[in-house]
Design goal:
This protein is α+β, with helices and mostly antiparallel strands. It contains 3 helices and 2 strands, in the order E-H-H-H-E.
Length: 79
């Protein structure tokens, strides 16, 4: 990032914390199942795809096998 003109101040792995956010998204998705299934834009196939993806994401982030990284940085002044 420094090569691109940024000064990195901190780097934090947030995957385990992000698992909680993903779990809320999963719960919200599942609580709207009827509404989603009745929407012609989505249907059963897309509902199941997102159900599986969100469930997998919660588990993977929670156990640390997939993660997100948060960077805090400043733009370096140009000379």
């Amino acid at each position: 990032m420094e090569v691109s003109g940024f000064e990195v101040h901190s780097v934090e792995t947030i995957g385990r914390h992000y698992s909680h956010t993903l779990h809320k998204w999963y719960d919200n998705w599942m609580s709207n199942k009827k509404k989603i299934m009745n929407n012609p834009k989505y249907g059963e196939g897309l509902f199941r795809l997102w159900e599986i993806f969100l469930a997998w994401s919660v588990i993977a982030a929670g156990q640390g096998s997939a993660t997100s990284v948060s960077y805090t940085h400043l733009t370096l002044p140009t000379t």
